[in-house]
Specification:
This protein is α+β, with helices and mostly antiparallel strands. The chain folds into two domains: 2-131, Beta-Lactamase; 141-293, Alpha-Beta Plaits. The protein is 46% helix and 23% strand.
């Protein structure tokens, strides 16, 4: 009867572990490589690996080429100090898809205080992390055009300035404005005006390079910051003209669609102020705007 009870208890515990809704592993801490000696069915389902592909491996096999994650530093320190810890790390399933893993590690000691095992409880939090990333993305973007908002634009531009200072490559910043945009709003309505701003934003992103930063200064003004290969400025205005031509082809307004632009480029010094560069670009843009009115 007692054996039957022990057997039932063992079977019930195993069943409970398998339907727990979280991945559970046990690693042998008496071996330096911390091999996995147990993995429940949920862990197998979560990772896509069969039990025989898991047993004997260290859990880091799920990290792929992402072994330099910041949270792993904390995890390694906890293992070194034989302490429990909780981290959020990026892992890969067997099919190569990435997922976010919330990992809780608990050390298990014997009666003499010697470390024997690590119990790992793992939860797939991919949906939660993607939602958080979406919230961050929305906070960084202009709600209408989805390019960077002013605050985030300057954050990114400052990073480019640091790269420019380190590499010696010139840093450029430009301002682009729709000439007589108020007339478009007044004549065709704000819905079409918003569509024009959205369309222009998309075309600016497509026209400039992937490492260039596009943001909205407000109203109908956009900003571009970039690491340049030259102190020449004509390439910037050529890009703007390409965007302008594509807008003219697609929007049949009563008067020609015109973009006014100003661009300045400089070799970075430690005391270079981005506000001074932006002011210069803005002045050049308004000079072009006055020329269109002439």
């Amino acid at each position: 009867m007692e054996k039957r009870s022990d057997l039932l208890t063992s079977e019930l515990v195993q069943l409970a572990l398998d339907v727990a809704g979280t991945g559970i592993t046990i690693a042998d801490a008496r071996v330096d490589s911390l091999p996995i000696i147990y993995a429940n069915k949920y862990f197998q389902t979560m990772t896509g690996y069969a039990l025989n592909e898991i047993i004997g491996k260290n859990c880091r096999f799920l990290q792929g080429d992402l072994g330099d994650q910041e949270s792993l530093v904390y995890l390694r320190e906890a293992l070194k100090d034989k302490e429990p810890c909780k981290v959020r790390i990026k892992n890969f399933r067997k099919d190569g898809t990435l997922f976010w893993n919330e990992l809780n590690i608990t050390p298990v000691f014997d009666a003499n205080g010697e470390l024997e095992y690590y119990i790992g409880v793992q939860k797939d939090i991919t949906n939660e992390m993607q939602y958080q990333e979406q919230l961050i993305e929305l906070a960084e973007r202009d709600s209408l055009t989805l390019v960077l908002n002013t605050r985030t634009f300057f954050d990114y531009a400052m990073r480019l300035m640091k790269v420019s200072l380190r590499t010696g490559q010139p840093f450029g910043i430009g301002v682009i404005d729709i000439h007589n945009f108020k007339r478009i709003n007044d004549r065709y309505g704000h819905m079409l005006g918003d569509e024009v701003l959205q369309s222009l934003a998309r075309r600016l992103i497509q026209a400039f390079r992937g490492n260039d930063v596009v943001g909205r200064l407000g109203g109908d003004e956009f900003m571009i910051s970039c690491i340049s290969n030259t102190l020449e400025t004509q390439w910037f205005y050529d890009k703007v003209l390409q965007v302008e031509d594509s807008m003219v082809r697609d929007y049949n307004f009563d008067e020609k669609f015109i973009l006014s632009a100003g661009y300045t480029v400089a070799e970075m010094q430690r005391d270079t102020d981005i506000k001074d560069l932006l002011r210069t670009a803005d002045q050049l843009m308004y000079k072009a705007k006055r020329a269109h009115k002439a």
